[in-house]
Each structure stands twice: as C-alpha cells, then as structure tokens.
Amino acid sequence: MDTTATTLKQRTRLLILILYVVGLLITSRLALGAWLPPRSEKGVWFYSALAALLLGNLLVTPYFRKPTNSISYSVAAAIALLAVNPWGRTNYIGFDCFLWSSAMGYTGVVFLAGIFTIALKDSQRVIWQKFDKSCFLVSDTLGNPRAIFSVIFLFALVTFHRSSPREYIIIGFAWAVFVGLRPLESIAGLFRRFSAVWSTEEATARLGTVVGHETPGLVLIREETSSAVSFGDLLYVRNESGKPGIAVALDHVGFTDGRWLRAQHLCSETESDQSARGPSLVRDVAEGSVFFADKRKVSADTNSAVDDICKRLLGLVAPDTAVGTLQVEVVRADLDLQLGSLIQVNIGSRTVLYQTIEGITKEEILHQKNTRGFVRAVAKKIGCWNSANTTFESVPWLPQPNAPVFLAPQQTPTPKREAIGHFPQTDYTVRIDPQFLVTHNAAILGILGVGKTFLALELVERMVDAGIKVICLDLTDQYSQQLAAFYKSDAESAFMTELNGIGLSGKTNCNKNVEEGGSVRPFEAKLKEHLTAFLGPAGTDKLLIFNPARFEVWRQDSKPFQNVASMATLTPTEITRVITEVALGVLQAQGMTDRARCCLVYEEAHSLIPEWNAVAAEGDKAATNGTAKAILQGRKFGLGCLVITQRTANVTKSILNQCNTIFALRVFDATGMEFLKNYIGNDYAGVLSSLMDRHAVIFGRASSCKDPVLLRLNDRDEFLKIFRKQISVESV
Fold this sequence. Notes:
Blueprint: H1 3-6, H2 10-32, H3 44-58, H4 67-83, H5 94-119, H6 126-142, H7 145-161, H8 165-181, H9 183-199, E1 206-214, E2 218-223, E3 234-238, E4 244-255, E5 259-268, H10 271-277, H11 279-286, E6 289-292, H12 300-312, E7 313-317, E8 325-330, E9 342-347, E10 350-365, E11 371-386, E12 391-393, E13 404-407, E14 419-422, E15 429-431, H13 434-439, E16 442-445, H14 452-465, E17 469-473, H15 479-482, H16 489-505, H17 520-535, E18 543-546, E19 554-556, E20 567-569, H18 572-589, E21 598-602, H19 605-608, H20 619-634, E22 639-645, H21 653-656, E23 661-664, H22 670-685, E24 695-699, E25 709-713, H23 716-723
Parallel strand pairs: 16-22, 16-23, 17-18, 17-21, 21-22
Antiparallel strand pairs: 1-2, 1-6, 2-5, 3-4, 3-6, 4-5, 7-8, 7-13, 8-11, 9-10, 9-13, 10-11, 11-12, 14-15, 14-25, 19-20, 23-24, 24-25
C-alpha cells in the first residue's frame, strides 16, 4: 500500500491525475507525433500507463487492495497482452515472444494467487492457512496495479519501440517519471508537511517533558521555566502506552529541575487527528515532549469533559480505598467542600455518590528530600441514585485508582412532603417509614438546643398522618402547644383534672391490704378506661399528651397501725411505667399484629426511663425495668416507642438497645459516642461532635437509606407549610 497517496485529499489526487494524463498526451505527441496514440501495438504503453494511474494509488484503490482487485487487474492485463500476441508473427523475434510469455506468466501467477486466497480463506487446517497467507502476500505485492501494468508497459516499450531510439527514450523516460517516480505525489506530500509545520500552533507552545506515569490515567510532567500552566489547561502528551493523546492539567507536586505537574489523560488521538497536527509534532510527543493543545481543535466531548473538570473536579481516587470507604486526594482548594458534602465517582458505567465524613492533611517525601503537603478526604459510600424510586441503590464494588472524583452538583433543596431532610447542598432526600419507626423503636440523641424536639414533633405528625396513635409523655409541655392542631386540649384537660383528682384522693386511703391502699389502683383503672377508648378501633383521636410530673398519685408503703400507714407519691418514672403497662394491656386485648398501633414518646427520657445508676429514688429502678419489659413485649401488639434525650448515658440501655432507628445529632459525651458507634460505626460517630445545628446522622430500618447518612433536617416552618396544608383537624 502506498502511504503517500493515502494521506492526500481526493481533490489533490484528482488534480495530480489530470496533470499526469496531460503529461502522457505530451509524451505521445513528442514520441509518435500525435496527441492520442493509436490503439495498435504502438499505443499499448499509453493505455497501460493510464490504467496504472487510474487503478493505482490515485482514484480506485488508494487505501486498500483486495484479492478480487488483483484478479481483475491480472485479467485486464492478460486481455491487453492477448491483443498484441507476437507468437506466429514473422516480424517478431524469439526474444519478443519470450518477453510476452514472461508477462503472461506474471499475470497468471497474480490471477492464481488471488483465486487461492479467496478459496482458502476459511480453511481450518494449518497448512492451508499458511498457504492462504502466502498467496495473499503474492497477490497483494505482485498484484499492485503499478507493478502489473508496468510489466505490460516495459514489454510494449522493448517489443514495439526499440527500433526507434526517439520513441524508446521518450516513452521510457515518461514511464520512469509518471509511473515509477511519481514526483507530483512527493511534491504534494512535502507541501502538506511544510504546511502542517508552519500552521500548527501547538508546536510553538511547548510545556515540558514527560518524566513518569502513575498508571492508570496520570502523567507526570517536568515544566520548562518559561511555561505558565494552570488548572484545566489542555495538553498534548503521550499516554502510558506511548500513544499521543489529550490530557488536562491538574496540580503541581514538586520541584526538581523545574516544576512537576500532574495531568489527567482524557483520550487518545486518532490517526486523522495526528495527521492534522503534523508528523513533526507527533514525533516530538512520542519522544516525550508536551505541548499546549487548542480547545478549538479537539472534539466536543473532550471539551465537555474539560468544562466539567474545571467546574467540579475535586480530586483523585487515592490508595487504601475500600468497597465502602473512598479515599480522595484533593487537588484543588477552591471548591466548597465541607463535612457531609456529596461527591461522585464512576464505578463501571454507574455514577456512585459518597458522603465526606473526614478530612486529613498528609505529607509525602519527593525527590532530594523535598516534601509535598496535601489534603485527603474520606467519604462513605451512599449508592447510585434511582430517580424513579427516589432511593439509593447499593453498588458493591470500588472505583479504579486515580479515577477523577467530582463534587456533586450543588442544588437549592426543594422541601418535599415525604422527606425527613436532605443531603447538605443538594436536593437528594431521605424518607422515613412511620411503620418501621414504631414497630422497631427509635431514638433521638443529642445535646441541648440542636433540634431534637422539633425533629420529634415532625415524627409525631408523620405517625399521626400514617394512622398511628401517639401517646406523648412530655415533661416540657411543648407538645401540647406545638401539636395543638391534633390535640383536643379542652376535653383532655378535663380528663387530666379528673385523673389527677383520683390520684390526690389516695393520700388518705389507708388499707390493711397494702396493694389496695393509696390511689394507684383507681388511677390505673381510670387510665385504662380512657386508653381503651383512645386505642380502640372506634377511637377518632390520634394524640394524647401526659406530663408525668403533674400527677400526684399516692402509694401505701407499709401496713397500717392505728389506721395510719406510710404513704408516698409516685415519681415521674413510676407514672411512666403505669402508662406504658396500661397501654400494653389495652393493645394485648386487641390481639397480635404486624402493624404499628401506638407509639409512646418519651421526651426527656433520662428522667422517665433512667439508667439504674442515674435514678432519683430506689423505686425508679423497678419502674424502669417494668417500662422496659413492656416495650420489649410491645412489638407483637403494635406498640413501640420514640426516645428523646440529651444524656445518652443516663437512659436505660434495655430500651435504647431495642431502638433500631437512630437520629444522632451533636453529642459530646464519651458514653453517647461509644453507644452510637455500635449503630453508625466509628466513621460517622467521629463527626458527631462537630455537627451543625439541624444536622443529624440517621440510620436504621425506618430510613430509606440502607447505610448511615448525614442529613440537613427539615426546618420546622418549612415542614409545616408543605405537610400541614394537606391535613385538617377534622381529618385527624
């Protein structure tokens, strides 16, 4: 195959063909005295040369030849030779017949080689495969149109023009120039190469030299002192396989005999791209030189990738990355990266999101004791976002080393009715299933003033909206104010007054049977009557609120002496036990179920269900155990709890350990962090002390995410606007 012709444009080849035909006509005029030679023996040279030009490397087969082409060329040549057969003619000598026979033999060999190549191409036997390849080589080499028609040309020249020195010299010279040397192709190729050298802008913008590769995807470049490169510049550089390609400048990583620059490979160049750049530039790049590339001369896809890198590229996948944890070497500091930010990286063909949970400064030693400091971000895998289901799907693998890591597009979050919150600076949301929230219990943990109560109020409203009855045990009296739309305060206030009156009457109720003394039994009976109506299928109310500290219920502590006995009031912890056990008893009477029926909300749980070493009175230990026992049994009957506390260490672990869904806001105490590590792991537990207000780590069965996630919780006002507009007091 002629590589010179393949690099010429078709218009250039057509122009060269016209000039060659004109040259042949002039040759005919000079040698034979006529512009167009006769179609007898005297014109064989002309038409064979014309065929070589037409069928050669200018028009018909400039790029490739198939065995069928060689067969057609040999047949055409044989027909031309048969038309001028010297055998049997008296005016030709034996040498002429020998030349004709040799030319016919040549065409016969080409013809048979082409036939065998076609016939044996699908052979399974090794010997025939080798024979097929040999025939192809013969067909491809000897079947070249320039070669096969040159045989005819030389036969015609010697046989029909040797008697005329003028014809012999002029026609022979024409063959050597037009068919052999082909000067016009060489001139056109030289002009194209000069044009590429002088018109290539990159050749004058040399950046430096390749000094190493970080496989896969990265190249290390030593800059020249006069260069000025910045993040996002396009570079023309060889890749790790030695092929020229396009890369984008990242960051500087040291200084030894010039600054060292890292660049990320984007794509390899095609042969046509390299041809357009010019052979000298391609050769320099292959030898290790690096040049600036013009964005106007690369593909739209490459430009799009560069724009994305300039806007959102954060860093590269670093060593020690695991299936669930991403290590990122940060290459730029101008992006708004913070704790909880979402970043994305490709795993196969899927874009997978991670959440940053840690940032660490690192240092590495470079050449000649120079050091380089950089930042490494640590992120936990969230998954691949499924917009149809609005959930994250798990991707059980890890990205390739040095893969680019991007900051997820920042969005203004849109409040959504079903969302408990969103990932910081994005519109990705997490939902909570109220059924699992109750049946598997839940806890909200955090210090004072970080938004625990507002979150609890939102969860209560979601449970009410899902048809779940809620009993709040609130020492703060906030729930009756914030949830007034769901709470019939007048009717409940009358009941609370009546219930408290029953409790007060027990102060003087002394009985020989200690169990019958005081007001505990009457209090439980009245409470059971009310809860039976509330929790029954016919009950229309969805919310009850008790303040255990407001009840004065008396218990007889000793046998009477002269109708006088020791009396004591129940503590809030003991009142909590009474309410919990009565609620369980009412639900047990309704039978077992898999659905949530009632949720007990323990606000300020460290005062209602304290740990054994944090009780205010000895009786609180037994009361807490009774409450915990009721909660443990409650799931079978649709009873669950929501625990809210700022002091994790002081809440009974018998109940906390049963809370499958955890909302962890900012905490400082070591006991709380150690407890939360069992749920959310060391990584997320480590961020709890630095969480901002209204931020929480959420994990559990009720969450739409399978793994722990850090969320920005809904603002109370925004939640009420979007949630309550679909709820009326009458509907609850």
